[in-house]
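Hi all, posting the design record for the shared folder.

TITLE: backbone redesign
STEP: 1 of 1
STRUCTURE INPUT:
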C-alpha cells in the first residue's frame, strides 16, 4: 500500500506516509481503513506526501477529491473537532491538497480543520507535536 500509517495513541495522532505511485483508490482505502476504527475517533492526522512520485487517478482530480472530502466529512465525529496536516512539497500534490482542503471546508459535516504545508516542520508545528519517531 503506497500509504503506510502509524497510530500514535499517546499523542492522539495518525501519521501516514505516501510513497511511489499513489492512486485515488489508495487514498480512499486509507480513509476507510483508518477512520472507521473506533480507537482513532477525534485524533489529529498528518499525511506526508513528499515520498509520492506520481499521483494517478482514473477520474478527474476535482471529482475524486470532492468525493473523498464528502466521505471523510461523513466519517468525522460531530462532537470532536480535530486537525489534519498534509505535507506536500511538490506543486501538483500541494495543489491537490489545497483542493481537498477547500472541499472539506465547504462540507457542513466536516469537523476536521485541514491545512497543507510545504515542510514537515511546519505541519508538526500546526499540530503542536515534537519530533516523531521515524519522521525527518
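Okay, here is what came back for every position:
SEQUENCE:
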Amino acid at each position: 500500500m503506497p500509504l503506510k500509517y502509524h497510530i500514535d495513541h499517546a499523542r492522539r495522532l495518525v501519521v501516514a506516509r505516501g510513497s511511489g505511485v499513489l492512486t485515488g483508490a489508495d487514498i480512499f482505502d486509507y480513509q476507510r481503513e483508518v477512520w472507521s476504527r473506533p480507537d482513532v475517533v477525534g485524533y489529529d492526522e498528518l499525511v506526508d506526501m513528499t515520498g509520492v512520485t506520481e499521483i494517478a487517478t482514473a477520474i478527474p482530480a476535482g471529482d475524486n477529491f470532492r468525493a473523498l472530502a464528502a466521505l471523510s466529512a461523513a466519517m468525522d465525529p460531530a462532537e470532536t473537532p480535530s486537525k489534519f496536516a498534509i505535507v506536500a512539497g511538490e506543486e501538483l500534490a500541494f495543489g491537490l491538497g489545497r483542493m481537498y482542503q477547500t472541499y472539506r471546508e465547504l462540507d457542513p459535516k466536516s469537523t476536521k480543520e485541514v491545512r497543507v504545508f510545504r515542510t514537515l516542520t511546519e505541519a508538526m508545528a500546526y499540530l503542536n507535536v515534537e519530533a516523531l519517531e521515524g519522521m525527518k
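COMMENT: Residues 3-127 form a domain with the Transcription Regulator spoIIAA fold (CATH 3.30.750.24).
Let me know if anyone wants the other runs.
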